Amino acid sequence: MFPQTRMRRYRNSENLRSMVRESRLHVEQLIYPLFVIEGEQIKNPIDSMPGVYQFSLDNVLAEVERAVQAGIKSLLLFGIPAAKDAVGTGAYAEDGIVQKALRLIRENYPDLVLIADCCLCEYTDHGHCGVLVDDYVENDPTLNLLAKTAVSQARAGADIIAPSDMMDGRVGAIRRALDENGFKNVAVMSYAAKYASSFYGPFRDAAGSAPQFGDRKTYQMDPACSVRQAMAETELDVMEGADYIIVKPALAYMDIITKTRASFYQPVVAYNVSGEYSMVKAAAMQGWIDEKKIVMEIMTGFIRSGSDLIITYHAVDVANWLKEQ
Ligand code: PBG
Question: Does residue 20 sit within a domain?
Fold first, then answer.
């Protein structure tokens, strides 16, 4: 009790504070998302995500090199195809945009960890994450297409497949298809607890993947649903073979990160999503907040809450700031 106990004794110098610091971020924990687009000489800025671009393949290696120079070890790839159709053919085409990007980056960077987003919404003309039957996103016929997508991505050089669609049973379908096609060592990083969130708005500008009607509420989780439902989603994915589990979005769902970390042994991945990024960028551009300090505090929060890995559009900046420290 006070006055014998004074907590401020731990804080009175930088060296004292650093002795009892335990939430530390390492560059190896950062995953950098990249948007690749068909075409040439493209570096399209995303208005709602300052600092984020769509890159054509002839421009993407320069961005990869910038990330590698900063110390980044892993990338998450999203693709914007030239054409879309009802069944998202571009997602599982052998010469699809992500498949081509995987081959190109793998050729030039044999050791980079390449993670492929596995979903149909960027490739369907209706913008939903699965195939439609009477305007309903039908679960089971979608599974085959996701499995095909995963196998084609593995064949192109992906180390990890990251299904973000939220269909039931997709992790199992993907795991089986990978094994049957000789990719037993390709891992699955599943978006296990993914909520139907308004924080994805800017991403849909970047990926051109906004649903053309309705919303994603019949497949992504309700933000106010029980925490037990998030645990059930995660447990199902783990039982179907997920090697890593993503909680998405991250900032408004840190309770889920903490609970997931306590209940499962698979590495927990925080997805610091587009809307979270854009809010920080917008306030920083107004001069209302200190971008570097705010971003590093957010990253510390993810680590403290139990994240093993962090997917973030800030990754290259964070990696460079870590070097300065
Ligand atoms: C596709 C997908 C989305 C995100 C990642 N994969 C959008 C969505 O579900 O609508 C969002 C990422 C972000 O906001 O940064 N299913």
Answer: no
Contacts (Cβ under 8 Å, ≥6 apart) of 138: 130, 131, 132
75: three-class secondary structure by DSSP: strand
The CATH number given to whatever domain includes residue 190 is: 3.20.20.70
**Closest by alpha carbon to 164, among 206, 203, 129, 197?**
129
The sign of the CA dihedral 289, 44, 113, 70 is negative
Distance CA(23)–CA(18), nearest Å, equals 10
Distance CA(197)–CA(222), nearest Å, equals: 8
Q: What is the pLDDT of residues 84-113, one digit of tens each?
A: 999 999 999 999 999 999 999 999 999 999
The number of folded domains in the chain is 1
Mutate to test the pocket of ligand 1, among 48, 122, 164 (most ligand atoms within 8 A of CB): 164
Assigned domain for 15 exists: no
Residue 10 is assigned to a structural domain of this protein = no
Ligand 1: which atom is nearest the Cα of residue 272? 15
Tell me the average pLDDT of the chain: 97
Cα angle, residue 22 at apex, residues 16 and 25 outer, rounded to 5°: 115
Residue 249, in any domain of the structure: yes
Residues spanned by the domain of 152? 25-215+223-324
Cβ 278 under 6 angstroms from ligand 1: no
